[in-house]
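Q: What changes when D-malate is included in the input?
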Amino acid sequence: MELNTRYQALAPQYLFSDVARKVARHRAAHPEAAIISLGIGDVTQPLAPAVVQALEQAAREMGCADTFHGYGPEQGYPFLRQAILDYYAGRGVSLQLAEVFVSDGAKSDLGNILDLFSSENTVFIPDPVYPVYLDTNRMDGREIRFLRADASNGFLPMPPQRAEADIIYLCSPNNPTGAAYNRAQLQQWVDYALDCGAVILFDAAYERFITQPDIPRSIYEIPCAAQCAIEFCSFSKMAGFTGLRCGWTVVPLQLRASGMSLNEMWLRRQSTKFNGVAYPVQRAAEAALSEEGMQQTGRAIAVYQQNAQLLHEVLVKAGIYHTGGVNSPYLWMRCPDEMDSWQFFHYLLEKGGIVGTPGAGFGENGEGYFRLTAFSSPADTAEAAQRLGKLLGAL
Ligand code: MLT
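A: The predicted holo structure follows.
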């Protein structure tokens, strides 16, 4: 019996499981410690009232024979796909219903989309990177070329001069660095992909944190992007759905390679391997996109943006180089005192009771850097900011 031995090449644990294990060990040894998590990007603000109301209503429908829903369309219910279409239209991006696929979150689809590609394809992956892009490609044995992201390019790598790729991962605003591409930079990536016949896999999960007008919220704001890009988005961070699970993927009808339509392939893949997202969750997602829902979820986003601002001010005051915090719930800081990223992780945990994520966990170029998130409660973030400022001031 042969197994997929490529799993042996992966780190033994997924990054956030590894961090959670280390924190649990610390907690067991120091039960008195008041630990604050600025680690995994999990939301803390409750669901918006409009979302809860839609969930309750949908649950009641499920309990009544006349309004009960069994299997739904694998692509998602038209009511939610239409709401997503309207969400894009509000920003001047015109899509068709057949291009939108409802998912249980961006993470799953970012991995599943690889079913459409050959394992012979070459992949460009930024380093540092959200580990899912890397691990899912390693599981399939694809050749990976890393795009170096560092302080010299503001953690926003641009297309290389010579090398060519089949698949290119871009995440903007970026996880983990919080850096965001402007319009001109994304145009360069689209031109490059069209030139070499590559497909861009664009992760837009953090688009709702963008505040600056020259930062696109969707790759489809760039002319011709529909010929070369698939976009992934999620209700997790924009509407607090990390525990409900819902997202979407846009596969444009124009997108073709090797004489095949990627939209048709994805539809075939989803109808074979996926049974769709729960009806009440799709109703909740629809409510999140309603006018009332957007206003209410906007208040939660504002809380996270204020948290990010507070952490940003602490780092500025301490003179620490960092990216993110603006247009993004992530702050990517250089570790102080030449500590490596795991040393700083232990230092912050032991001396300050703060959990963050070591940059080295996101790739080689993440070494010497550290990620903080703005998703804690305002009170916890204020307390963590005070502790962090004190520790950095004392070094
Ligand atoms: C993160 O902390 O990077 C994210 O929460 C992970 C995710 O969205 O899967």
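Observations recorded in class: The chain has a mean pLDDT of 96.
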